[in-house]
Amino acid sequence: MKHLATPQLWFVCGSQHLYGPEVIEQVAGHAREIAEKLDASAHIPLEVVSKGVLTTPDEIRRLCLDANGDPECAGLILWMHTFSPSKMWIGGLSSLQKPFAHLHTQYNRELPWDSIDMDFMNLNQSAHGDREAGFLHTRLRLERKVVVGHWSDEDVQQRLGAWARAAWAWHDWQGANFCRFGDNMRFVAVTEGDKVSAELKLGFAVNTYAVGDLAERIQAVSDSDTDALIKTYLDEYDVAPELRPGGERHDSLRDGARIEAGMRSFLEEGGFKGFTDTFEDLHGLAQLPGLATQRLMAEGYGFGGEGDWKTAALVRAMKVMAHGLPGGTSFMEDYTYHLAPGQHQVLGSHMLEVCPTIAVSKPRLEVHPLGIGGKADPVRLVFDAKEGRAINASLVDMGSRFRFIVNEVESVTHPDLPKLPVARAVWECLPDFKTACAAWIYAGGAHHTGYSYDVTTEMMEDFAAMAGVEVAIIDADTKLRDFKQSLRLSDLYYLLAQGLRA
Hints:
single chain, alpha/beta, six-stranded antiparallel barrel, five-stranded parallel beta sheet, elongated
């Protein structure tokens, strides 16, 4: 995956000197063992490193400041093995700028009923040590994830893993750069947004670059580099006969290959993690980048159509959360509906730019007219998406704040679409079509989305908490009356939240 660092999670254990050096030594050993087992878990994608036992305010403050300044640290996992008076943590946690999870566990799984004594009780005090910590976290209004259960349980490791993937994506956003080739589609509201607020709140920068500069990079692509990409296409895809070497439309494929090579060069040189373009600004390009965008997304770049930089950043974050998982993640658009009685479905697609990681089988490489943009017929990968549970997510600018919207959906099979030569997915919304679509519209969700079989609602909730951003969930439990009321309460909460923290 392009420009993806692999940071660490710091496992931090709290205690105090009241118990004496022998107990502290035992606590440290237990903390190391838990960190090692979490590090070895297949559910946690990042390295977990034990940072020992903290017993004084100075140690805690120093570690939190170290975490802030360490680019290798994506977040902290906190656990109070014994009782750690939480006033010691005020200075450190109030200055901490990295996300943290609170693991409410204990070293032993079962109580030794026939031998338990006060020495055992004094050593294994997580039951109330973590409550002391939890009070302070709540008193300071700190966003965190609380995971409860024995550290060896698979469900505990899965929940920590979901948080770790969100922390990974949040780490990836900090200092990230996103490139806009041209502006957004004219007169469209939802693709606009406050890029200054985004960099301040979300950590990434968005800047515009001239399409003419991209065109120069494309024109400089050598024939040998173009030939190499053509060979890759022939190896990886079912290429239409007219696009193959010697075919009557082979020049269209060569144009598509030059666009891909030029865009990749531009993005790599600039260190960008995602990009946008728009069919209204294609100066110097032979065709709208379809194949190029699909393949760059498959490499991990975020993308948003028509200048939609918020969705480009969201797709990148979802790509990072899903890294190493098999399902696939893509830019998507809710395009049109099937409203047969009892079978309400959404046909999701875009003009060209759907990522082949969600394809159910080998994509077919074809060329067809686009009908808009005024350029040559673009090449593109055509395929159906996989079946299965997925999420559709949106990031919108509400003016005073940002909002994530997440809808859980079920991707389904559908009839053949012989006259629709684009990549596509068909899904059914939870809890049902009418409730989900109404909730999405009430929440201000965009028509552009991030669509993923790997990213879960839990990951998106954790990610939104790290960003300090509202998240509206539409799932099997959604009731429209309650959902509308929660949006009203969120307006009030986010207006008042900064004053509540003091």
